[in-house]
Prior knowledge:
The protein is of the alpha/beta class. It contains nine helices and twelve strands.
Amino acid sequence: MLGIAQDGGHPQPGCLRPCCANITEPHYPVSLGIRSREGTNLLIEATRYLGEQFAIWGQTKVDHLLLTHAHLGHVDGLGLFGREALAARGIELHVSDDMYHLIDRTPQWNLMHQQGVFNIQTFTGGDFVFSQGELSIEAVRIPHRAELSDMHAFIIRGPSKSLLFLTDHDTWNETLTAHNCSSIRELLGKLNVDIALVDGTFWSENELPGRNQAQVPHPPVLQTLNMLGEKKQGDPDIIFTHLNHTNPLYNKDSEQYAEVERLGWSVAHQGQRFNL
Ligand SMILES: [Zn+2]
Ligand SMILES: [Zn+2]
Ligand SMILES: [Zn+2]
C-alpha cells in the first residue's frame, strides 16, 4: 500500500488547520504496488509522489501500470515515466476505452505514447486486465463522477486470497444498483473478495465546511459503518482508504478510529502489505 490519501494528499496544499499543520508523517495519494511470484511489478495509479512511493515499495521498475480513472491524484504522476524523469520504455499501460481517449486527446500523454513510453491496452468492466501464473487482475465498472473518464475498481486474485481496490465512488446506492446487489456484503460476496479496500474519503457529511458535498460525492465512512454493522464470521476484511486530509481516521487516538476497530473493520496504513 503505497498511499492512503485522497487526491490532494496529506498535508493538503493550502490547509493551515491542525489536520495538516501538525503532522509528523506525510500520506501520499492512493496507490498499490503488486509484485508477482515471477518478479513482475504492477502499479495501480500514477501519483506525483512516485519517487517516495518507490521507496516504500522497495522497487523502481514498473512492468505494468493500471489506472482506475482520470481524477487528479490517480494520474498526475504519469509524466514522471517520460523523458524528463524515468525515461521508461514499453510499460504496459492498462486503461479503459474512455481513459484511452483522454490520453489520446491530452498532448503531453499522447506524446509519451508516441515516444514509446507506454504500450496501451484497453479493458472494459468484467475483463481480465492481467494474468500470470496464479495471479490475475479483473476490472469492475464503478459509477463515479465522470467529467474526464469512467471509473473501474480492480480485483487482484492470488493463489490464496483476493483483494478489491475500490478507492472512489459516488454513493453505495449507485454502486450496488450497478451490480444488482442490495447490500455491501452481497456485493463483496458476489465479487468474491477476502480483503476490500474501500472509499473512506470523508468520515461524515459535514466534513467540508463551506464546500458543497455534492461537488465531491463519496459515501461517508459513518454511512458505510451503519450499513455494515459489526463484522461477522465469514465477512471479508474491510479497510478504509483514500482519506481526505480532514478525516479523523488519520488520528489513531480518535474516537472515530476506535469505532471502526470496535466494529471489526480497519483503516489502511501506508506501507501495509498483503500476501495474496
Ligand atoms: Zn480519488
Ligand atoms: Zn488539512
Ligand atoms: Zn475520483
